[in-house]
Design goal:
By secondary structure, this protein is of the alpha+beta class. It is built from 14 helices and ten strands. The radius of gyration is 19 Å and the shape is globular.
Length: 289
């Protein structure tokens, strides 16, 4: 728990008047819990991505972790430093009591759009991006976090074809209190079966989400029929995923095998770490060359 204590020391500046400190240029994204603006930080002169969290939605999320001292997103984000994780420069509370993050502004496109398009850019870079995403997630795990919401919506591809993980809103410490059963947060179609069934969890729920994301990157489809309700998502528990080679018969069979192992229903049958899965993908990439 020492790393949590360090994070809470000096966990943010005094309240900030957003309109005075930043010159807002245009909105560049809106998630379920936040809005992101391209802005100029008058304090530094930098062009930044300014993320402002919805106060009421953030409050409802925090109520799920009452008594657990879950760090705020800004506290988590500013501690992360990796080539494939967006850099966070500052964070704090606005004069309207909203949490905000000041992040590097990335010229790029959301991975969700590239998944839907399935164009030449995706075909040429898919395996490399899968590996980069795995490297980012492995780093997150090495810092003792569980992401809990890995999906294409939370990933950007830069103009130079570098992948960046950009959202940490549901991340929790990888500690026993946060691994207890009951708290079912995340994006439904990417949730591991043990999370859906409210069983104890660990970093292997991220392995599952990572495998679902890689599966989509190669095929545009989910391993199961798409579903909007949690009841429908129970199919993760009740039926096996569709074999990826049936959708993409020309793909590297070693890559296919690595992805399918990440989708195993039982955590013990999955890759036990993201690092293991990334190593399998790297080995397949070398063989392909």
């Amino acid at each position: 728990m020492n790393f949590l204590r360090r994070l809470f020391q000096g966990s943010g500046p005094a309240k900030v008047d957003i309109e005075k400190r930043f010159r807002l240029q245009n909105p560049v994204g809106q998630g379920t819990m936040s809005k992101v603006w391209k802005a100029t930080d008058t304090k530094t002169g930098q062009t930044v991505a300014l993320k402002i969290l919805d106060k009421e939605k953030t409050k409802r999320l925090e109520q799920r972790f009452v008594g657990l001292n879950r760090p705020r997103e800004g506290v988590i984000a500013i501690s992360l430093h990796h080539p494939h994780v967006v850099q966070t420069y500052d964070h704090g509370i606005t004069t309207k009591d909203e949490q905000f993050l000041v992040m590097e502004f990335i010229e790029g496109v959301g991975l969700s759009s590239l998944v839907d398009l399935q164009g030449e850019r995706m075909t040429a870079n898919c395996l490399r991006w899968c590996i980069q995403l795995g490297e980012a997630l492995d780093y997150v795990h090495s810092q003792q976090w569980i992401h809990r919401d890995l999906c294409p919506r939370n990933i950007i591809i830069t103009m130079s074809n570098q992948l960046k993980l950009i959202d940490f809103g549901l991340m929790v410490p990888n500690t026993p209190p946060f691994r207890k059963p009951g708290n079912r947060t995340g994006t439904a179609m990417y949730m591991a079966p043990e999370l859906v069934r409210r069983l104890p969890t660990d970093q292997r729920i991220d392995v599952f989400s990572y495998a679902v994301t890689c599966y989509q990157m190669f095929t545009k489809q989910f391993p199961w029929p798409a579903a909007d309700t949690m009841e429908a998502v129970m199919q993760h528990v009740n039926m096996p995923p569709k074999e990826i080679l049936l959708l993409k018969p020309d793909m590297n069979p070693q890559v296919a095998k690595a992805i399918m192992r990440g989708l195993e229903k039982e955590p013990a049958d999955r890759w036990q770490s993201v690092k293991e899965m990334v190593e399998a993908l790297r080995a397949a990439a070398v063989v392909r060359k």
